[in-house]
Design brief:
Elements lengths: L1 E6 L8 E6 L2 E2 L6 E5 L3 E6 L8 E9 L2 E9 L65
Antiparallel strand pairs: 1-5, 2-3, 2-6, 4-5, 6-7
Length: 138
């Protein structure tokens, strides 16, 4: 879709608005609509096709004269969607021999009871207590 829009400097409902493609007057269809509210004139194209490519112009006229404005419309062909490839029939694949690995058997760890060595007792050596001389106060 597309739209050509022009705006008059001041409101004038008596103005005649004509739209052209090249030199041919454009007639309204279900795909092409024209509007004019006294200030803004529009040519609206609902669905553009490659055939609509070309020079478009508008002619505004009143009792004082006429003026024209034009623009080029270029409609490119839409990019073709890549064709969906049909799913290829899958041939049954040959089953590859897979060596089955047996899970490694875990041997329970046998903990050897630690030999308890009798603790060697060191003989307690008593230090002789030092006696402080008593000092008597008079």
């Amino acid at each position: 879709s597309g739209e050509f829009v022009i705006k008059l400097a001041k409101l004038d409902r008596k103005v005649k608005v004509e739209w052209y493609k090249s030199t041919q007057i454009i007639k309204e269809t279900t795909e092409i609509k024209t509007t004019f509210d006294g200030t803004i004139a529009k040519l609206s194209i609902r669905k553009s096709t490659v055939e609509m490519t070309g020079k478009y112009s508008v002619e505004i006229s009143n009792e004082f004269g006429k003026d024209t404005s034009s623009a080029e419309l270029i409609v490119k062909e839409p990019k073709k969607k890549p064709e969906e490839k049909k799913p290829e029939e899958k041939k049954p694949e040959e089953k590859k021999k897979v060596e089955e690995k047996k899970p490694e058997e875990k041997k329970p760890e046998v903990k050897k009871p630690e030999e308890k060595k009798p603790e060697e007792k060191k003989p307690e050596v008593k230090k002789p207590e030092e006696k402080k001389p008593e000092v008597k106060k008079p």
